[in-house]
Design brief:
CATH superfamily: Histone deacetylase domain
Bound molecules: 3-cyclopentyl-N-hydroxypropanamide, zinc ion
CATH architecture: 3-Layer(aba) Sandwich
Distance between the termini: 36 Å
Strand order of the largest sheet: 2-1-5-10-9-6-7-8
Radius of gyration: 19 Å
Order of helices and strands: EHEHHEEHEHEHEEHEHEHHH
Oligomer: single chain
Helix content: 25-40%
CATH class: Alpha Beta
Structural class: alpha/beta
Length: 368
């Protein structure tokens, strides 16, 4: 059993500026706060917990490298890549595409390193150098479709890694499980009409992007059923999420029988996240990881590659990520120090309206 792990110090140097989602505007009453909500420190703190706890000693370090232009262009348009590269040379950098996703000088090179980190992890898993693994990359990727960045994402790391597996590593069928609290719209759109890539997104209903991720979004005309969306009601906790996995995610993966499972792993369903209203704790993330590993053992020799997406609580993201990586590695070296607080919040049990939503999706997407 070995678990790969990607981190590069430059991911902690991503400069998302001092504004971002709500830039200071005194006339509108918006005070400066000094850092973007997606500040890289949150991810760096996860890496440092993995190092300090000793978990890193149970992991096989996989080196990130820059994704080549050819690799990036398997997913993105030359216009998008060209614009990012140009803005990346400017003294103050640029924006991924929606005005809330700024990057500093040299930002393109770090984004290419994040995409290349995802590629290298997937390659290590597919070639059997490791059994499974976690690429702790930054910035995130899942909102970016072919032609633009958005929602703090510059390049779609997961889509680029999946495209690499299919174009260069002889893999055909891939499933992407996206448990970030926001809809994986970019990844879904890249593979919308591709029957050999299943994209499955579990997110908070209507959270971001607005109007995206409805349960009726099921894939393009040549690939009906190749997209699955589970828009969970706000306030869903550990057992609501675990029910969604048990009832829909796992059976859908079993039916699709991919050769590789890639998880787009955001920790913003976490109970302390400022950008969403879910209640998941390290217990829920651990359980989702266990379920994915179990079905992966059945269908694809355990080949699971996880790639970091969002997560904005500098307090809680480290413990959620640590629990996931421990579970991948099959070890337990640290307790979640915040669990006494977040686990004690009421609302973790499966509620009737959460069950109803999941059952509705199951009826829609699973073979009768
Ligand atoms: C982008 C603007 C409001 C919510 C934010 C979402 C970024 C994210 O974590 N996506 O997964
Ligand atoms: Zn997110």
């Amino acid at each position: 059993m070995s678990t790969g792990y990607v981190w590069h110090e430059l991911f902690g140097w991503v400069d998302s500026g001092s504004g971002g989602l709500f830039p200071a505007d005194p006339a509108a009453g918006l005070q400066p706060i000094g850092h973007h909500v997606a500040h890289a420190d949150t991810k760096r703190r996860l890496h440092e917990l993995v190092a300090v706890s000793g978990l890193i000693g149970h992991l096989e370090r996989v080196e990130a490298r820059h994704a080549t232009e050819e690799e990036v262009l398997r997913v993105h348009t030359p216009e998008h890549v060209g614009r990012l590269r140009r803005e990346s040379t400017l003294p103050k950098g640029g924006d991924a595409g929606d005005g809330i996703s700024p990057f500093g000088k040299g930002g393109y090179e770090i984004a290419a390193l994040a995409a290349g980190g995802a590629i290298e992890l997937v390659e290590a898993v597919v070639t059997g150098r490791v059994d499974n693994g976690y690429a702790l990359v930054h910035p995130c990727g899942h909102h970016a479709p072919a032609h633009t960045g958005m929602g703090f994402c510059m390049l779609n790391n997961v889509a680029i890694a999946v495209a690499h597996a299919r174009a260069a590593l002889g893999v055909r069928r891939v499933a992407v499980v996206d448990w970030d609290v926001h809809h994986g719209n970019g990844t879904q759109s890249v593979f919308w009409d591709e029957p050999d890539v299943l994209t499955l997104s579990v997110h908070q209903d209507g959270c971001f992007p607005p109007g995206s991720g409805h349960l009726t979004e099921r894939g393009g005309p040549s690939a009906p059923g190749s997209a699955i969306n589970i828009p969970m009601p706000p306030g869903t906790g550990d057992f609501g999420y675990l029910y969604a996995f048990e009832r829909v995610v796992v059976p859908a993966l079993r039916a699709f029988a991919p050769e590789l499972i890639v998880v787009a792993s955001g920790f913003d369903p976490g109970a302390m996240d400022p950008l969403a209203r879910q209640l998941v704790t390290s217990r829920g993330f651990r359980g989702m990881t266990e379920q994915v590993l179990q079905v992966a053992a059945e269908v694809c020799d355990g080949r699971v590659a996880m790639v970091q997406e969002g997560g904005y609580s500098p307090f809680y993201v480290p413990f959620c990520g640590h629990a996931v990586i421990e579970t991948l590695a099959g070890v337990k070296v640290l307790d979640d120090a915040l669990f006494p607080v977040v686990g004690g919040m009421t609302g973790h049990d499966l509620a009737p309206h959460q069950k109803a939503l999941v059952d509705e999706v199951a009826a829609l997407v699973l073979p009768a």
